[in-house]
Protein 1
Amino acid sequence: MYPPPPLPPRRDFISVTLSPGRSYDGGQGLRRRSFWRKWKQLSRLQRNVVLFLLACLMLCGLLSYISVADEWKAVGSRSAEGPKMRPANPPVLPAPRRAAENPETFAGASPQKPPRHFRRGPPNLQIRAPDGDAKDRRQDEAQRRAEAAGEARWEDDAQGSRVSWRGTGTEPEQGPQLPPRKAEAAPRPSPQALRMRNSPALQNERQKAVVAAFRHAWAGYRKFAWGHDELKPVSKSFSEWFGLGLTLIDALDTMWILGLKKEFEEARKWVSQKLLFQKNVDVNLFESTIRILGGLLSAFHLSGDVLFLEKAEDFGNRLMPAFQTPSKIPYSDVNIGTGVAHPPRWTSDSTVAEVTSIQLEFRELSRLTGVKKFQEAVEEVTRRVHSLRGKKDGLVPMFINTNSGLFTHLGVFTLGARADSYYEYLLKQWIQGGKKETQLLEDYLEAVEGIRKHLLRRSEPGQLTFVGELAHGRFSAKMDHLVCFLPGTLALGAHHGLPADHMELAQALMDTCYQMNRQMETGLSPEIVHFNLHPQRSHKDVQVKAADRHNLLRPETVESLFYLYRLTGQRKYQDWGWEILRSFNAYARVPSGGYSSISNVQDPRNPQPRDKMESFFLGETLKYLYLLFSDDPDLLSLDTYVFNTEAHPLPIWAPS
Ligand code: DMJ
């Protein structure tokens, strides 16, 4: 057989009919005549049908005209009032949308496109368009019915392998499905559940002041930001980061501890009815682990309410794709709806503090659920980081590559941003696990010696002990406020049997952190300070650059004050915390509700509110202040609980 002859190449033709002698009228006369001929050719029935359809069309047109005309009339009457109200120069951006007064009605309102919202580091942590509202409502309804029927319901997931803009298309590990649970590990109320104290009589005056501050902050959140991530107290609005009610979840255990039962119940209802993780949204693995996973686990432990554990397990499952990298060092971001994980847009590095400060939460999740993969994933990270080259006497660089698994940007060492909680979690995991994991302890002890050797100095003229930074052998006298977690961590280690000189160092650093607040005109620490190393009497110990003068309502100073008071009993630490609370009330409190971070801690007349209340103000700052003012060492005993880096208490597994 011969193959058929090849077809000629396809050509496109345009056919043109020329009609000489006809005057040009756009062909309209011709079209009219041919329409009339076609109409005549129709049967009577066909004509009637066509006429009937035309009549229907006209009727519809008439009806919709009437309704539109009504609306126009309304708009017209609104705009008649308009000119009086409108500012002479209307703002370029629309005014922020206000949340309704009633949180329940607002929580279900249609999603708006959230404002872009930037954090330290990655610019791509923005919320994506949430799923349709109707879908959310259907899921809510199904969830409500399931809960009414007494069963925990786990949403179905439309999962599929997807390829993100940078890399991994990962099959979400069991996605949101509830993994088969070992019968013996079924969740049950925590044996350590802490009874909520309802009686204000049990609270001293300072604790009552913290409760008042919390109520004020909560009132703002409830009124203007209910169910959203963060309150913008000045504009009486909100901002989204993950679109998961971050402040509400971060604050759950604080409400429990402060005895705010009504508020807790209302928030619990929101978690039960509105908190759904099947959302097309990128979350930062670290931030969402410490705030959301940690917050839910603590809420479960304190209240004994299994709802929080179920939510925690669902969320933990959705974070797991982040660990599917060539090196097993997790990506910074993961989409909890699609299961696609990825590094930041500009690099394949992750931050060292971020990948090493999720262990307490994932390990606890494994212990509670009996599902080992959570613990295995994070402990693999710990093992790999432990044996990496590039450390300096236990100090770690700030970045680690998710492909190679190696440290990058070698030679730069800090106890501040991007490295801070690595050190904190070495100690706290060791405590959490019952002080058996000696490798964690050894890494911690070595790091403390590394800090002493390379980063510790005294300022002039006041001889304040501080922790600076090292960049390629050059010392910088710069210290982030974030470093003020360190006195508390050192004191905690000493309490758990580590060398007594750790406590001495803790106390010296505590003095310094207090001075970082005290020496500012508002009594609130700036984000970063530089210490004076030169012995001229005219210079102050603590110096602040214009770009670093802001205060974000961070907890680290009061966190350490809590540990220092709890473990030494020295009242001065309570007094220092009291000063700080008074400063927050004087300079950060927004009368209509909420507290705001401020731009200038050196200008008490105009501290410049930044219109943002970070979730950690309720999750950490106010919680630590309340615990600092307590004289009851059994209120979240440090022999029973270990606090994650977002101040969420988790139980110590076994007595040492
Ligand atoms: C919190 O999210 C955590 O404490 C974290 O470890 C550091 N940053 C903030 C508070 O400042």
Protein 2
Amino acid sequence: MIKVDFNIDKVRKDFPILSREIYKRPLVYFDNAATNQKPVQVLNRMDLYYENQNSNIHRGVHFLSQEATSAYEEARETIKTFINAHSRSEVVFTKGTTDAINLVAHSLGRKLLKAGDEILITFMEHHSNIVPWQMVCETTGAYLKVCNITEKGEIDIEDFKTKLSRKTRIVALNHVSNTLGTINPVKEIIKITHDAGALVLIDGAQAVAHLQVDVQDLDCDFYCFSGHKIYAPMGTGVLYGKEDILDKMPPYQGGGEMIAMVSFEKTTYNELPFKFEAGTPNVGGALGLEAAIKYVNGFGLATLAGYEDDLLKYGTEKLLQIEGLRIYGESALKTGVISFNLNKVHSYDAGTLIDKFGIAVRTGHLCTQPLVGFFGVPGFIRASFAMYNTKQEIDKLVEAVIKTREMLL
Ligand code: 7TS
């Protein structure tokens, strides 16, 4: 493997926001699982689009429209290669992970699911991978089942096997938990699920910036992710779906772009992937997403994962030295996410004080209310790392947590 020169000072200069001061202290940004920051390479690509190429796509014969269309379709090709999809038809642009999961849930809900069918999720899902399925259960009469997790924050595989039944139509779970950082054994779960005759949707929102995803190797039926969690703009995202499955699914939304022919008597739909892309898409955002993928590829995900893993180990060790601090999510396979609590201190109080040190952490239920309920607490304090974070920043967090503890206990 080629050794990549990962120069952290150089990397940090690519992210303009990191030179900001918050409360007269240099910003320490540890809320990367919520959204990460954007490098100039991404910002410049979007500027270039709006300054030079802005035009609606797939509908104009004029030069700009054709140029923008080609750029947009090239971005799709870059994403196809990034996740190793078989074809560009399998890459649907969405607004993000939430949008992608809703697309699948509602489309399947219209055709595949009926009363008595089962949908299996896990206890560690983000609300985005719970609520759309509940909505579909309400309209179809299907039933939502939830697989247990262990105290360490891992999927209980035996429970999964017990809950998977001949009635299960789809299993939906995250690749990486946003709250615990656990990397789930999705390949194994996909195999077990396929053997039982059901489909699998993987919520990859927290995975794509940290793990090399190969959808063909995983053999998942659907894979969803958001651009803004991989250094790309908000409002961008991807639904990958196997072509033969997407082909059979009805469209989720109607409008321009997704049609072949419209008359008042009958409308026919466009081919894949356009059947699922109603309306004017976020072209500038898609180009920003392509630039972000190229930026990440420049280092290689393995290099970034190795660097972040080092931060995770360092942060875990340092934080655990603080009296009364408990970390939730103790799987041996984790990305750079540390959720913790300090004795009986409420996470909002701690987060508010930590903020005063110029450190951004997320607090509360982290859009995983059933999961925080499982651990019997109202919420967590979460520090999540990205490629531009440093051990010096972790030292600042540790110092802030110690001072917070002294003030509140
Ligand atoms: N799934 C997972 C695992 C996530 O972490 C998130 C966002 C989503 C789905 C939804 O993604 P969106 O881009 O469509 O909003 N997670 C978080 C978080 O942990 N803090 O803020 C957002």
